[in-house]
Write a structure and sequence with these properties.
two-stranded antiparallel sheet
Length: 385
């Protein structure tokens, strides 16, 4: 069937007592790999394209400066890839906009085929955040598209999102936010952080999602809770990158034990980006180390040169502009390019498969009601949201 909105996937997770991982992709082959590994483990799939990922997929190597036009092109490229590999998938597939900056970004994503969008107004005063989020809901719900908002501030850096310190989400303010905006999901701040450097031995404040869930239930409000900044940053992958010429320092993630304990506390969706970046970067470094002749390849040698120039960076978007036709359109023009794509896909699957199992969504694909965007739009209309 066609791709599904986010709400029925998270409704199933709430009923089943597990969490859905939500995984960021920045290339056609990454989208393919995420869908395939979810099929293997019989889990619904949530693929995320961040606002700046759309700029990158639109051909903008300096994606932080991407224009609306870049994002429109990129959203269509991501949307086309996910449709290609997901429309006939045996598991439900969601394409979700991560950290949408404004209404223009939201509109670009929906036009490109996204079935769910996040609008991040967390840096705004409460009233302005609610106003912006409500406007997105008014635009998205009539199209059957689910909406995630954010309340509270996470420390750390992810694309254009930066904060020096965290502001925890107030449960009573969360009730006000959900009531006024009608969002389907709410990203909260309870101790996670963006980026690869979250600090050692982070302890999540599980009392915050517990209190928010209780307050929402008391008021009869229906909203899933989302954990951003939740990458585990596997230490073994960091060690392997550094052994292969990288220089990733002070990289610590959220422990799996902490994340898993947050699920019964009320977390339904767990966002992961950095783990995939690390696994893909490690695999690319390993490929060029094992096959040094590829370092001079006319097809992919440019990737190796960028890896050499940026040993401290774990983000594949820094290295992949050298093969932009493969990134944007999935073009695999020769054996060297095929070898690169193979290791990228393997890295994605390694990172994602582990978390599907740990978060408990494996085997639960049949639990999600298969709802089209048109059917979801009718439900929103009947419910007045």
């Amino acid at each position: 069937m066609a791709l599904v909105p986010l709400k029925p996937v998270l409704d199933a997770a709430r009923r089943g007592g597990y969490a859905q991982g939500a995984f960021n992709v920045n290339a056609v082959c990454q989208a393919k790999a995420v869908i395939e590994v979810h099929e293997m483990l019989r889990s619904a799939a949530i693929l995320q394209g961040a606002d700046l990922a759309n700029a990158f997929m639109g051909g903008r190597a300096d994606f932080a400066n991407g224009t609306v036009e870049d994002k429109i092109v990129g959203a269509r490229n991501i949307g086309d890839a996910v449709k290609k590999y997901g429309e006939n998938s045996p598991v439900p597939v969601v394409l979700h906009l991560d950290h949408g900056r404004d209404m223009e970004s939201v509109k670009a994503a929906i036009a490109g085929g996204y079935t769910s969008v996040m609008i991040d107004g967390s840096s705004l005063p409460l009233e302005e955040n609610m106003e912006l989020t409500r406007e997105v809901v008014k635009y998205a719900h009539p199209r059957g598209v689910s909406v995630e908002g954010e309340l509270g501030v996470l420390a750390g850096v992810e694309d254009h999102v930066f904060a020096a310190s965290s502001t925890y989400t107030n449960p009573l303010t969360a009730v006000e936010f959900v009531r006024n905006t009608k969002v389907d999901a709410l990203a909260i701040s309870y101790g996670t952080m963006h980026g690869p450097s979250k600090g050692k031995d982070v302890k999540l404040r599980r009392e915050i999602p517990i209190a928010i869930r209780e307050c929402l239930a008391h008021e009869g409000l229906d909203c899933a809770l989302v954990s951003h900044g939740s990458s585990t940053v596997p230490a073994y992958i960091v060690r392997e990158i550094n052994a292969l010429g990288g220089n990733i320092q002070n990289a610590y993630g959220i422990s799996l034990d902490e994340l898993k304990a947050a699920i019964p506390a009320g977390i339904n969706k767990i966002n992961v980006d950095t783990d995939i970046r690390l696994a893909v970067t490690r695999n690319m470094r390993e490929l060029f180390a094992k096959r040094p002749e590829l370092q001079e390849s006319p097809s992919i040698g440019g990737v190796y040169q960028l890896l050499k120039e940026h040993p401290e960076n774990p983000d594949p978007r820094v290295f992949l502009p050298a093969v932009y036709d493969t990134v944007m359109y999935g073009v695999v023009e020769d054996d060297d390019r095929a070898a690169l794509v193979e290791v990228i896909e393997a890295g994605v699957k390694e990172a994602v498969a582990t978390l599907i199992v740990e978060f408990g969504s494996y085997g639960h694909a049949p639990d999600t009601e298969l709802v089209t965007l048109e059917e979801m739009a009718e439900r929103y209309e009947k419910a007045g949201i």
